[in-house]
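@channel sequence for tomorrow's demo:
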Amino acid sequence: MKFIISSTALLKQISALSGVIVSNPVVPILENFLFEIKDNTLTITASDLQTSMVAEMSVESEMNGSIAVPAKMLADTLRNLPEQPVTFTINPDTYIIELNSENGHYKLAGENAADFPRVPEAKNAETVELTAEVLSSAIAYTLFATSTDEMKPNMNGVYINLRNTDATFVSTDSHRLVRYRRFDVSSPTEVAVIIPRKALGLLKNTLPSDNTPLQLALSKSNAFISFANIRMVCRLIDERFPDYEYVIPVNNDKVLEIDRAELLGSLKRIAIYANKSTNQVRLKINPDSLEVYAEDIDFSNEGEEKLPCVYEGETMEIGFNAKFLIEGLSNLNSKKVVFKLSEPNRAGLLAPETTDESEDILMLIMPVMLNSYY
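C-alpha coordinates (generated this afternoon):
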Protein backbone atom coordinates (compact mmCIF):
# COMPACT_ATOMS: atom_id res chain seq x y z
CA MET A 1 0.00 0.00 0.00
CA LYS A 2 1.36 3.40 -0.97
CA PHE A 3 0.01 6.95 -0.81
CA ILE A 4 1.18 10.58 -0.97
CA ILE A 5 -0.09 13.32 1.35
CA SER A 6 0.80 16.82 2.53
CA SER A 7 2.79 16.76 5.79
CA THR A 8 1.01 19.86 7.14
CA ALA A 9 -2.48 18.64 6.22
CA LEU A 10 -1.86 15.26 7.84
CA LEU A 11 -0.39 16.83 10.96
CA LYS A 12 -3.46 19.06 11.33
CA GLN A 13 -5.77 16.06 11.29
CA ILE A 14 -3.82 13.82 13.63
CA SER A 15 -3.30 16.73 16.05
CA ALA A 16 -7.09 17.05 16.32
CA LEU A 17 -7.31 13.32 17.11
CA SER A 18 -4.28 12.96 19.39
CA GLY A 19 -6.16 14.00 22.52
CA VAL A 20 -8.15 10.77 22.42
CA ILE A 21 -5.06 8.62 22.84
CA VAL A 22 -4.00 7.91 26.44
CA SER A 23 -0.62 6.77 27.70
CA ASN A 24 -0.49 3.13 28.78
CA PRO A 25 -3.91 2.17 27.35
CA VAL A 26 -5.65 -1.03 28.39
CA VAL A 27 -5.08 -2.40 24.90
CA PRO A 28 -1.60 -1.61 23.46
CA ILE A 29 -2.96 -1.24 19.90
CA LEU A 30 -4.68 1.96 21.06
CA GLU A 31 -1.31 3.73 21.11
CA ASN A 32 -1.72 3.82 17.33
CA PHE A 33 -3.77 5.64 14.73
CA LEU A 34 -5.75 3.40 12.43
CA PHE A 35 -5.11 4.37 8.80
CA GLU A 36 -7.57 3.03 6.24
CA ILE A 37 -7.48 3.90 2.53
CA LYS A 38 -10.41 3.34 0.23
CA ASP A 39 -10.90 5.02 -3.15
CA ASN A 40 -8.30 7.75 -2.53
CA THR A 41 -9.80 8.64 0.85
CA LEU A 42 -7.70 8.24 3.99
CA THR A 43 -9.70 7.57 7.16
CA ILE A 44 -7.78 8.14 10.41
CA THR A 45 -9.16 6.78 13.69
CA ALA A 46 -8.02 7.29 17.29
CA SER A 47 -9.71 5.55 20.22
CA ASP A 48 -9.48 4.82 23.95
CA LEU A 49 -12.46 2.40 23.83
CA GLN A 50 -14.72 5.01 25.48
CA THR A 51 -14.21 7.76 22.90
CA SER A 52 -13.27 7.51 19.23
CA MET A 53 -12.52 10.28 16.74
CA VAL A 54 -12.38 9.79 13.00
CA ALA A 55 -11.09 12.16 10.32
CA GLU A 56 -11.21 11.80 6.56
CA MET A 57 -8.99 13.38 3.92
CA SER A 58 -8.11 12.91 0.26
CA VAL A 59 -4.84 11.23 -0.76
CA GLU A 60 -3.15 9.94 -3.88
CA SER A 61 -3.21 6.14 -3.79
CA GLU A 62 -3.44 3.35 -6.33
CA MET A 63 -4.70 0.70 -3.90
CA ASN A 64 -6.80 0.24 -0.77
CA GLY A 65 -5.53 -1.06 2.57
CA SER A 66 -5.13 -0.43 6.29
CA ILE A 67 -2.42 -0.23 8.95
CA ALA A 68 -2.05 0.79 12.61
CA VAL A 69 0.55 3.61 12.83
CA PRO A 70 2.44 4.55 16.06
CA ALA A 71 0.72 7.81 17.03
CA LYS A 72 3.42 9.63 19.00
CA MET A 73 6.25 8.77 16.61
CA LEU A 74 4.26 9.86 13.58
CA ALA A 75 3.12 13.11 15.19
CA ASP A 76 6.65 13.99 16.37
CA THR A 77 8.05 13.30 12.90
CA LEU A 78 5.49 15.42 11.07
CA ARG A 79 5.74 18.21 13.62
CA ASN A 80 9.41 18.64 12.75
CA LEU A 81 8.96 18.52 8.98
CA PRO A 82 8.35 21.64 6.84
CA GLU A 83 5.39 21.65 4.48
CA GLN A 84 6.03 19.09 1.74
CA PRO A 85 4.57 15.94 0.17
CA VAL A 86 5.27 12.79 2.18
CA THR A 87 5.09 9.31 0.67
CA PHE A 88 3.91 6.42 2.84
CA THR A 89 4.82 2.90 1.77
CA ILE A 90 3.39 0.03 3.85
CA ASN A 91 4.44 -3.60 3.69
CA PRO A 92 1.25 -5.60 4.37
CA ASP A 93 3.22 -8.67 5.49
CA THR A 94 5.64 -7.08 7.99
CA TYR A 95 3.58 -3.96 8.84
CA ILE A 96 6.68 -1.84 8.28
CA ILE A 97 5.85 1.77 7.37
CA GLU A 98 8.34 3.80 5.34
CA LEU A 99 8.08 7.58 5.07
CA ASN A 100 9.91 9.45 2.37
CA SER A 101 10.17 13.22 2.41
CA GLU A 102 12.13 15.58 0.17
CA ASN A 103 15.37 14.95 2.03
CA GLY A 104 14.66 12.13 4.47
CA HIS A 105 13.69 8.51 4.89
CA TYR A 106 12.07 7.11 8.05
CA LYS A 107 10.94 3.63 9.02
CA LEU A 108 8.26 2.84 11.64
CA ALA A 109 7.01 -0.47 12.97
CA GLY A 110 3.25 -0.55 12.49
CA GLU A 111 0.71 -3.14 13.64
CA ASN A 112 -2.08 -5.22 12.15
CA ALA A 113 -5.13 -3.03 11.53
CA ALA A 114 -7.39 -6.01 12.25
CA ASP A 115 -6.47 -5.73 15.94
CA PHE A 116 -7.83 -2.18 16.18
CA PRO A 117 -11.31 -2.02 17.81
CA ARG A 118 -14.21 -1.13 15.55
CA VAL A 119 -15.98 2.19 16.02
CA PRO A 120 -19.70 1.79 16.92
CA GLU A 121 -22.26 2.68 14.27
CA ALA A 122 -25.25 4.94 14.87
CA LYS A 123 -28.25 2.61 15.10
CA ASN A 124 -31.68 3.56 16.46
CA ALA A 125 -30.33 6.99 17.33
CA GLU A 126 -32.30 10.22 17.69
CA THR A 127 -30.69 12.82 15.42
CA VAL A 128 -30.79 16.62 15.58
CA GLU A 129 -29.23 19.24 13.34
CA LEU A 130 -27.44 22.25 14.81
CA THR A 131 -24.35 24.32 14.14
CA ALA A 132 -20.83 23.99 15.46
CA GLU A 133 -21.19 27.46 16.97
CA VAL A 134 -24.21 26.41 19.06
CA LEU A 135 -22.55 23.27 20.40
CA SER A 136 -19.30 25.14 21.00
CA SER A 137 -21.18 27.73 23.09
CA ALA A 138 -22.97 25.01 25.07
CA ILE A 139 -19.67 23.29 25.87
CA ALA A 140 -17.92 26.55 26.79
CA TYR A 141 -20.71 27.51 29.21
CA THR A 142 -21.02 24.13 30.93
CA LEU A 143 -17.78 22.14 30.76
CA PHE A 144 -15.94 24.05 33.51
CA ALA A 145 -18.61 23.17 36.09
CA THR A 146 -18.47 19.39 35.63
CA SER A 147 -17.18 17.30 38.52
CA THR A 148 -13.79 15.57 38.49
CA ASP A 149 -14.73 13.38 41.45
CA GLU A 150 -14.80 9.77 40.24
CA MET A 151 -17.11 8.94 43.15
CA LYS A 152 -19.76 11.09 41.44
CA PRO A 153 -19.88 9.59 37.93
CA ASN A 154 -23.26 11.15 37.16
CA MET A 155 -21.62 14.59 37.45
CA ASN A 156 -18.55 13.74 35.34
CA GLY A 157 -20.17 15.08 32.19
CA VAL A 158 -22.79 17.41 30.74
CA TYR A 159 -26.45 16.46 30.85
CA ILE A 160 -28.24 17.11 27.55
CA ASN A 161 -32.02 17.12 27.36
CA LEU A 162 -33.54 17.44 23.89
CA ARG A 163 -37.24 18.32 23.69
CA ASN A 164 -39.62 19.55 21.02
CA THR A 165 -39.28 23.12 22.33
CA ASP A 166 -35.58 23.44 23.17
CA ALA A 167 -32.29 21.80 24.08
CA THR A 168 -30.95 22.10 27.62
CA PHE A 169 -27.33 21.56 28.66
CA VAL A 170 -26.58 21.22 32.40
CA SER A 171 -23.44 20.62 34.46
CA THR A 172 -22.77 20.57 38.19
CA ASP A 173 -20.15 19.53 40.72
CA SER A 174 -22.54 20.03 43.70
CA HIS A 175 -20.94 23.40 44.56
CA ARG A 176 -22.12 25.15 41.40
CA LEU A 177 -24.47 24.46 38.54
CA VAL A 178 -24.82 25.78 35.00
CA ARG A 179 -27.95 25.52 32.88
CA TYR A 180 -27.70 26.60 29.26
CA ARG A 181 -30.81 26.44 27.11
CA ARG A 182 -31.16 26.86 23.32
CA PHE A 183 -34.55 27.58 21.80
CA ASP A 184 -33.29 27.14 18.22
CA VAL A 185 -32.48 23.44 18.73
CA SER A 186 -35.18 20.81 19.27
CA SER A 187 -36.08 17.17 18.80
CA PRO A 188 -39.51 15.64 18.09
CA THR A 189 -38.65 12.88 20.56
CA GLU A 190 -37.44 13.77 24.04
CA VAL A 191 -33.97 12.41 24.79
CA ALA A 192 -31.85 12.85 27.92
CA VAL A 193 -28.20 11.72 28.14
CA ILE A 194 -24.92 12.53 29.92
CA ILE A 195 -21.89 13.05 27.67
CA PRO A 196 -18.49 12.58 29.41
CA ARG A 197 -16.25 15.52 30.17
CA LYS A 198 -13.30 14.17 28.15
CA ALA A 199 -15.27 13.85 24.93
CA LEU A 200 -16.64 17.38 25.25
CA GLY A 201 -13.17 18.73 26.03
CA LEU A 202 -11.88 17.18 22.81
CA LEU A 203 -14.79 18.68 20.89
CA LYS A 204 -14.15 22.09 22.41
CA ASN A 205 -10.64 22.06 20.93
CA THR A 206 -11.82 20.77 17.55
CA LEU A 207 -15.10 22.52 16.74
CA PRO A 208 -14.94 25.50 14.39
CA SER A 209 -16.43 28.71 15.82
CA ASP A 210 -18.69 29.34 12.83
CA ASN A 211 -22.01 28.07 11.53
CA THR A 212 -20.62 24.80 10.17
CA PRO A 213 -23.54 22.32 10.08
CA LEU A 214 -23.28 19.63 12.75
CA GLN A 215 -25.23 16.46 13.37
CA LEU A 216 -25.77 15.09 16.87
CA ALA A 217 -27.17 11.58 17.13
CA LEU A 218 -27.96 9.97 20.48
CA SER A 219 -28.60 6.29 21.10
CA LYS A 220 -29.05 4.45 24.39
CA SER A 221 -25.32 3.94 24.86
CA ASN A 222 -23.44 6.33 22.55
CA ALA A 223 -23.34 9.88 21.23
CA PHE A 224 -22.38 10.45 17.59
CA ILE A 225 -21.20 13.91 16.55
CA SER A 226 -20.21 14.69 12.98
CA PHE A 227 -19.18 17.91 11.22
CA ALA A 228 -17.02 18.75 8.20
CA ASN A 229 -14.63 15.78 7.86
CA ILE A 230 -14.64 14.83 11.56
CA ARG A 231 -16.71 12.25 13.43
CA MET A 232 -16.73 11.50 17.15
CA VAL A 233 -18.32 8.58 18.94
CA CYS A 234 -18.35 8.44 22.74
CA ARG A 235 -19.94 6.14 25.28
CA LEU A 236 -22.56 7.86 27.41
CA ILE A 237 -22.45 7.93 31.21
CA ASP A 238 -25.05 5.40 32.32
CA GLU A 239 -26.14 7.17 35.48
CA ARG A 240 -29.07 9.29 36.64
CA PHE A 241 -28.32 13.01 36.59
CA PRO A 242 -29.27 14.96 39.76
CA ASP A 243 -32.68 16.64 39.85
CA TYR A 244 -31.13 20.01 39.11
CA GLU A 245 -34.37 22.03 38.79
CA TYR A 246 -35.13 21.26 42.43
CA VAL A 247 -32.03 23.09 43.70
CA ILE A 248 -32.53 26.30 41.69
CA PRO A 249 -34.05 28.88 44.08
CA VAL A 250 -37.07 30.77 42.74
CA ASN A 251 -37.61 33.61 45.21
CA ASN A 252 -34.55 35.80 44.83
CA ASP A 253 -35.70 39.30 45.71
CA LYS A 254 -32.23 40.87 46.06
CA VAL A 255 -30.83 41.85 42.65
CA LEU A 256 -27.29 43.11 42.06
CA GLU A 257 -26.18 44.48 38.67
CA ILE A 258 -22.48 45.12 38.12
CA ASP A 259 -19.83 45.42 35.42
CA ARG A 260 -18.52 41.92 34.71
CA ALA A 261 -14.91 42.86 33.88
CA GLU A 262 -14.58 45.13 36.94
CA LEU A 263 -15.86 42.46 39.32
CA LEU A 264 -13.74 39.76 37.68
CA GLY A 265 -10.59 41.86 38.00
CA SER A 266 -11.38 42.69 41.61
CA LEU A 267 -11.96 39.04 42.54
CA LYS A 268 -8.68 37.97 40.92
CA ARG A 269 -6.80 40.55 43.00
CA ILE A 270 -8.64 39.95 46.27
CA ALA A 271 -8.39 36.15 45.93
CA ILE A 272 -4.62 36.50 46.30
CA TYR A 273 -5.24 37.41 49.96
CA ALA A 274 -7.81 34.68 50.68
CA ASN A 275 -7.13 31.53 52.64
CA LYS A 276 -5.61 29.07 50.18
CA SER A 277 -7.68 26.12 51.39
CA THR A 278 -11.10 27.84 51.32
CA ASN A 279 -10.61 30.64 48.73
CA GLN A 280 -13.32 32.48 50.66
CA VAL A 281 -14.26 36.02 49.69
CA ARG A 282 -16.86 38.13 51.44
CA LEU A 283 -19.25 40.32 49.48
CA LYS A 284 -20.93 43.17 51.34
CA ILE A 285 -23.67 44.52 49.10
CA ASN A 286 -24.95 48.07 49.59
CA PRO A 287 -27.45 50.03 47.46
CA ASP A 288 -24.71 51.69 45.37
CA SER A 289 -21.50 49.76 46.15
CA LEU A 290 -20.11 46.26 46.47
CA GLU A 291 -17.30 45.63 48.99
CA VAL A 292 -15.10 42.64 48.15
CA TYR A 293 -13.00 41.39 51.06
CA ALA A 294 -10.76 38.44 51.85
CA GLU A 295 -8.26 37.55 54.53
CA ASP A 296 -5.96 34.77 55.63
CA ILE A 297 -5.65 34.91 59.41
CA ASP A 298 -2.78 32.42 59.51
CA PHE A 299 -0.53 34.79 57.54
CA SER A 300 -2.13 38.14 58.50
CA ASN A 301 -3.02 38.84 54.87
CA GLU A 302 -6.10 40.78 53.84
CA GLY A 303 -7.41 42.71 50.88
CA GLU A 304 -10.44 44.88 50.26
CA GLU A 305 -11.91 46.73 47.28
CA LYS A 306 -15.09 48.73 46.66
CA LEU A 307 -16.90 48.72 43.32
CA PRO A 308 -19.89 50.71 42.02
CA CYS A 309 -23.04 48.71 41.42
CA VAL A 310 -26.82 48.89 41.22
CA TYR A 311 -28.59 46.92 43.92
CA GLU A 312 -32.21 46.38 44.85
CA GLY A 313 -32.75 44.90 48.29
CA GLU A 314 -31.58 45.05 51.88
CA THR A 315 -27.87 45.35 52.64
CA MET A 316 -26.42 41.90 53.03
CA GLU A 317 -23.15 40.00 53.37
CA ILE A 318 -22.55 36.70 51.65
CA GLY A 319 -19.48 34.52 51.19
CA PHE A 320 -18.39 32.58 48.09
CA ASN A 321 -15.47 30.50 46.91
CA ALA A 322 -13.54 33.03 44.81
CA LYS A 323 -12.46 30.33 42.35
CA PHE A 324 -16.08 29.50 41.51
CA LEU A 325 -17.02 33.16 41.03
CA ILE A 326 -13.99 33.80 38.84
CA GLU A 327 -14.66 30.79 36.63
CA GLY A 328 -18.31 31.68 36.30
CA LEU A 329 -17.62 35.30 35.34
CA SER A 330 -14.81 34.26 32.98
CA ASN A 331 -17.23 32.08 31.03
CA LEU A 332 -19.79 34.84 30.47
CA ASN A 333 -19.47 37.28 27.58
CA SER A 334 -21.77 40.15 28.55
CA LYS A 335 -20.61 43.60 29.65
CA LYS A 336 -22.72 43.47 32.82
CA VAL A 337 -23.94 40.57 34.96
CA VAL A 338 -26.84 40.17 37.34
CA PHE A 339 -26.72 38.40 40.71
CA LYS A 340 -30.03 37.26 42.17
CA LEU A 341 -29.84 36.51 45.90
CA SER A 342 -32.16 35.77 48.79
CA GLU A 343 -30.30 34.85 51.99
CA PRO A 344 -26.59 34.49 52.91
CA ASN A 345 -27.04 30.74 53.32
CA ARG A 346 -28.87 30.16 50.03
CA ALA A 347 -27.48 29.76 46.53
CA GLY A 348 -26.92 32.81 44.38
CA LEU A 349 -27.87 32.97 40.71
CA LEU A 350 -25.54 34.60 38.20
CA ALA A 351 -26.57 35.49 34.65
CA PRO A 352 -25.61 37.93 31.89
CA GLU A 353 -27.60 41.17 31.84
CA THR A 354 -28.76 40.48 28.30
CA THR A 355 -28.77 37.38 26.08
CA ASP A 356 -29.71 36.49 22.55
CA GLU A 357 -33.40 35.56 22.21
CA SER A 358 -32.39 32.05 21.14
CA GLU A 359 -30.60 31.25 24.40
CA ASP A 360 -30.87 31.37 28.18
CA ILE A 361 -27.96 31.01 30.60
CA LEU A 362 -28.09 30.56 34.37
CA MET A 363 -25.25 29.84 36.80
CA LEU A 364 -25.88 28.78 40.38
CA ILE A 365 -23.15 29.11 43.01
CA MET A 366 -23.46 27.81 46.56
CA PRO A 367 -22.35 30.21 49.32
CA VAL A 368 -19.82 29.45 52.04
CA MET A 369 -20.25 30.07 55.74
CA LEU A 370 -18.90 33.45 56.83
CA ASN A 371 -16.90 34.03 59.99
CA SER A 372 -18.23 36.71 62.32
CA TYR A 373 -15.25 39.06 62.13
CA TYR A 374 -14.80 41.99 59.70
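heads up for whoever presents: Helices lie at 7-18, 71-79, 132-142, 197-206, 244-247, 260-270, 322-330.
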